[in-house]
UniProtKB/TrEMBL annotation:
<keyword id="KW-0654">Proteoglycan</keyword>
<dbReference type="InterPro" id="IPR002035">
    <property type="entry name" value="VWF_A"/>
</dbReference>
<comment type="similarity">
    <text>Belongs to the ITIH family.</text>
</comment>
<keyword id="KW-0964">Secreted</keyword>
<dbReference type="InterPro" id="IPR013694">
    <property type="entry name" value="VIT"/>
</dbReference>
<feature type="domain" description="VWFA">
    <location>
        <begin position="276"/>
        <end position="459"/>
    </location>
</feature>
<comment type="function">
    <text>May act as a carrier of hyaluronan in serum or as a binding protein between hyaluronan and other matrix protein, including those on cell surfaces in tissues to regulate the localization, synthesis and degradation of hyaluronan which are essential to cells undergoing biological processes.</text>
</comment>
<feature type="domain" description="VIT">
    <location>
        <begin position="22"/>
        <end position="151"/>
    </location>
</feature>
<protein>
    <recommendedName>
        <fullName>Inter-alpha-trypsin inhibitor heavy chain H3</fullName>
    </recommendedName>
</protein>
<dbReference type="Pfam" id="PF00092">
    <property type="entry name" value="VWA"/>
</dbReference>
<keyword id="KW-0646">Protease inhibitor</keyword>
<dbReference type="InterPro" id="IPR036465">
    <property type="entry name" value="vWFA_dom_sf"/>
</dbReference>
<dbReference type="InterPro" id="IPR050934">
    <property type="entry name" value="ITIH"/>
</dbReference>
<feature type="signal peptide">
    <location>
        <begin position="1"/>
        <end position="18"/>
    </location>
</feature>
<keyword id="KW-0732">Signal</keyword>
<dbReference type="GO" id="GO:0006953">
    <property type="term" value="P:acute-phase response"/>
</dbReference>
<keyword id="KW-0722">Serine protease inhibitor</keyword>
Amino acid sequence: MALARWLCLILALLSGLAVSGFPRNPSRLLRAVDGIEVYSTKVNCKVTSRFAHNVVTTRAVNHANTAKEVSFDVELPKTAFITNFTLTIDGVTYPGNVKEKEVAKKQYEKAVSQGKTAGLVKASGRKLEKFTVSVNVAAGSKVTFELTYEELLKRHKGKYEMYLKVQPKQLVKHFEVIDIFEPQGISTLDAEASFITNDLLGSALTKSFSGKKGHVSFKPSLDQQRSCPTCTDSLLKGDFIITYDVNRESPANVQIVNGYFVHFFAPQGLPVVPKSVVFVIDVSGSMYGRKMEQTKDALLKILEDVKQDDYLNFILFSGDVTTWKDSLVPATPENIQEARKFVMDIHDRGMTNINDALLRGISMLNKAREEHTVPERSTSIIIMLTDGDANVGESRPEKIQENVRNAIGGKFPLYNLGFGNNLNYNFLENMALENHGLARRIYEDSDASLQLQGFYEEVANPLLTGVEAEYPQNAILDLTQNSYQHFYDGSEIVVAGRLADEDMNSFKAAVKGHGAINDLTFTEEVDMKEMEKALQEQDYIFGDYIERLWAYLTIEQLLEKRKNAWGEEKENLTAQALELSLKYHFVTPLTSMVVTKPEDNENQTAIANKPGEGSPLFLSSTASYQGPKTPYYYVDGDPHFIIQIPEKDDAICFNIDEDPGTVLRLIQDPTAWSPQGGNMGQKRGSSDSQNRRTYFGKLGIASAQMDFRIEVTPENIILWNGDSLSTFSWLDTVMVTQDGLSVMINRKKSMVVSFGDGVAFVVVLHQVWKKEPAHHDFLGFYVVDSRGMSAQTHGLLGQFFHPFDFQVSDVHPGSDPTKPDATMVVKNHQLTVTRGSQKDYRKDISVGRNVACWFVHNNGQGLIDGIHRDYIVPSLF
């Protein structure tokens, strides 16, 4: 058997809280290479009782005389779980197998270390992620790609929505087929496309529904796809949207199949429960400009929708906290008019004090309830909007979470809105989830104001509070979440479980809740014989759909609970979610899918894997990176030193914690170029030693062979050649060459310094928003070629240019359950190290890619020669 060769596919789904509703169904796109004909693309979706089973199939043939690469791209919802990916080549199918992530990880790492092609899933807009995989197809061969995923559809503003991004890019036999089966009966079904005229859409689209069944198909002919009569490219590029809802003759519906039940609850026509709402709004300097104007526009629109029975207040926070009123006030026309004037006068200022602002709002709601200044049958809600991280007052996320959790005490929900990407979304999400709310990312776009209004509309009309679903005692097992603080108009509560006795004749479910006028109980009793008739609809349903729905919902809720769990509780939640993921073949943050197929008499392996947002493993940039064969070294950030070692397919990292103004010797080589030091600056707002964060604000590079020096700061680059001096701005794009030396400045991004063909450094410029008061611009330093450095090279980075070995063993849970500890033996020292990750910004300065590494504590002690203070020098040169 030939040596194994690997093709690695990584599904790194960066999951956040997606908008509720019908699944964001896939778009498909097959990029053709010369000689490749894509002759069919089909999406088949079966929806049974809100549970969607989606299959995306694309077929291609290689007409060329040589092997060609074909890429298969699919956009799928962030909340979906992939259940299978298969390759069929010349009639032989190679299925995927779901394995525990750590088992598959070793295969992936081996593949990446060999520099083979990789597949990945990355964010594609707000609600979708794009799955991409490339394979080599032999001359004359046919290939079929088939991706299957499942998702529970959530009701959003009174409907389920299917959102397809249609973009085939070429003329192709193209089919979208959606079959819907709803035992309650379908009340509405519609479809529209933004990219095609109504005349053309009418002949390409068919839709129908009757009773329990609905059908939608979209089959544009080749002529309908053409952008002009003689064109070969497709005009199909845009959104294809399907919406539907079900009959609501009864507020609840229970379905039972094969020993599992699902209970849908969505009453209509109830009076709205009055609410007390506090808006906690970030007005720090980073909200300047369009974000602030869009926030004010949204708040003004929201004020139009506030009901007269409601109570409200506004809290603004920057470096300090201010309130519109000292306490909650009723939403009378006079108060609403005064609130509008207050909102219009909001302006940005200062820093970000999240902790005090939230505690002020929580205290206000608690006080109103305690003093009975709001109606007894009312509910409380707190909504916070921020675009950054806390940087004044209490700024530790875990402490803010603790303070907020203790203050709320489970009495009402917290909803967190994160404006943009420059914030710790995990922190906002975790804090909201543990206080019975949710987080939503608001994207910086022209419709940001509409996004904010849309979120408020979701929570504007509570119909019930203290909702709890009850079932016969000892009759059910493995129940999903069955209690909720609120039921909002237009949404739906879904509870699923397993029957303890499958032979019972009837099943009774009850939902209790507090309404605006009185307490309510809704009961539903199911005749088991009548329920069996659902199994007769074999053309529309897949028989185990309720069991899979239960597994999907259970895993989803276990993973949510896991985000705020610690120690033994987190281990138990992880074990339960992992067991179900493996049993039901779901690719979740705990599992990976492996596809193995023979190719040229060798093995080719694909790995698919889905971490949650913030997971340290298998981020999409890691998956797509096919790194260099030689080691490379860099220092960036606070500062983080990273040593990448391809032979180990691993990396070691450490930090240096020193006072601002300290200069460190990074590399010293008496025969070549030496980055003599990095001057450490301090980020504003971090003056105390415990929370101090430093960075490299100045770098110096000097030649031992020529009288040549380079000084780099975030403001400019200064080149000394003997007595002559040249200054360049980061706004320049310029190249300087002399005697084998090359200095190239890439405008606002990076500077590359190379000497001959064996020494190359990259300096990366990190620029922060100019009005951000807590951060400076700073620099990162990367050694991308050290072959030309001599055997005498040393320094914090330079010492690792020489071969060295290390061994890692005894991997075990650490103080942070997401970051295991291990024992490392290196340079005759035995160290306790922690698994983590750092960022590499060489290729993507704004986002970077994650590099997994073993972190050496105590300023790298035991890894570096001597101690870190041995590398402090008095000046840059």
